[in-house]
Amino acid sequence: MKIIAWPAFKTKYKNPYNWLLYSHILEQGVIVEEFTFSKLFRQHYDIFHLHWPTETILRHPKSVVALLRAITLLLAINWAKVRGTKIIWTIHDEYPHSLLHPQLADWFQSKFIKQVDGCISHSKMGKELAEKTFPSLQYIPHSVIIHGHYRQIYPNKITREAARSNLDIPPNYHLLLFLGYIDYYKNVPHLVQVFRELDPAAWILLIAGKIEAPELGTQISNLAGNDSKVKLRFSFIPDEQLQIYFHAADLVVLPFQEILNSGSAILALSFDSPILVPDKGSMKELQELVGVEWVKLYSGELTTEVLATALDWAIQGERSLQANLENLEWQVLAKKTIQYFENICTKKNHSKCSL
Description:
Elements: E1 2-6, H1 17-27, E2 31-34, H2 37-42, E3 47-51, H3 53-57, H4 63-82, E4 86-91, H5 102-115, E5 118-121, H6 124-133, E6 142-144, H7 160-166, E7 174-179, H8 188-198, E8 203-208, H9 214-224, E9 230-233, H10 242-248, E10 251-253, H11 263-270, E11 275-278, H12 283-290, E12 295-298, H13 304-316, H14 330-349
Parallel strand pairs: 1-2, 1-3, 3-4, 4-5, 5-6, 7-8, 7-10, 8-9, 10-11, 11-12
């Protein structure tokens, strides 16, 4: 089988999800290549597998350029389909985030969906939401293949004591951590406000990650004020430093206003950090996979009562030394993906993809 994927391996530096998936697919004897327009036009592929197509193709700030990019991709997809390539879309989010051209995005997505031969969601809830949002997806093969873990990908040798010392966390304090790209929908200002209202004894809140917009950083900084129990580190966290933050933390909180799937949640669990997440999207399914001792859900808005209960749960609850992530093993998920691709290839013409 020959697959061209966008992206395949090149985004490992910012999110290794694709790299992990396709590396394990390669190990099972399937060819995977990074997408370029020239490759798609010159060569034949059995599968064209796309991730985040709307966000990626329309990223250019000039609407005219974004439109030309969108038209070019649609023509390339049409060319590939004429030659027998199946178009597969992995749906990572309910809606694209941080779109520069919303109307153009709606137009492109409506055209793109008509070309799709099959799609993959990471959860049952994701599948239901996708088919509710785009009813035409009900009539094409739609598989649920969960998001794999991030264990053994990042350096992970530091001790808890060394990690806490590195971050200047006093010995008698617990650490509440938000780590990741800080965008508006992630609700970080509200987290800071709730933490300061609760003012929990012997707890420090650390916000770490790159800021989407300077004004968002200003808002968070103003809410934090001069509170010594709120630490702000507005910068990209290199891979080798992730272990420091997660091993120092007693609880990782992701107070997103909207969430379907979350690589951030799986990343924290991969470092064996318990998490607090809203009962939205696929978080209930994640809790069922990993266990209630590792994933705590809350309904509605994050409040001081919710946060107080979660802080007690984090330090008083009994849990194993490691989160059970056996359901998130990449070898199994890669095999399921290959089987799904083979089923797509046989659906209409009853002849298998080239092997």
